[in-house]
Amino acid sequence: MSAEVEVRAARPEDAALLHLWRAEKSVRRYQPLAALSTSQLRAELAARRAEDLWRSRGDRFDWIILVHRQPAGWITLVVHSWEHGLAECGYSLSTPFQGRGLMQRALTRLITDLFSRTRLHRLEARTAIANVASQKVLEKLGFRREGLLRGYFQLDGVWIDNYLFAILKDEWLQDRAASRNGPRPGD
Q: Which of 15, 24, 73, 142 fits as disulfide partner to 42, beta carbons 3.0 to 4.6 Å?
């Protein structure tokens, strides 16, 4: 039986979980997460209004991924421009939930909502070039690798190159429509 995967808006009471997850070695391996206390995370989450996303307002949003109603990880969305419909997503799963195909399912749910309920037109994601698992998630979702971001961030004193991936709203909606209609002749 496949796992039930849901996403819900992060709440201030999720701060302790986020703090714990952000300290996991497997979560930190490919991303430079700022050292934030539980109280700092709680304050950040309290300052955000999830409903603003659906009104095309705000610039940062967080969701908790639930697997059989158990918290398993998170997704973050940073809106760079509402005017141009440009945003970037980031995501992580807690160590016990990695490698099970859960992130692809969580992102599918969220991206479908984002492109059907907001003015977002382009969704970007970056991955460290060594993070092959994350790249596979994005490729399975239909994201295209658009470029190499050299020396994009520093991790443990080493400059890390990243790949830039993106998908457009029209591509996402076409892919979803095609998958609902089944394989095309000749596929």
A: 15
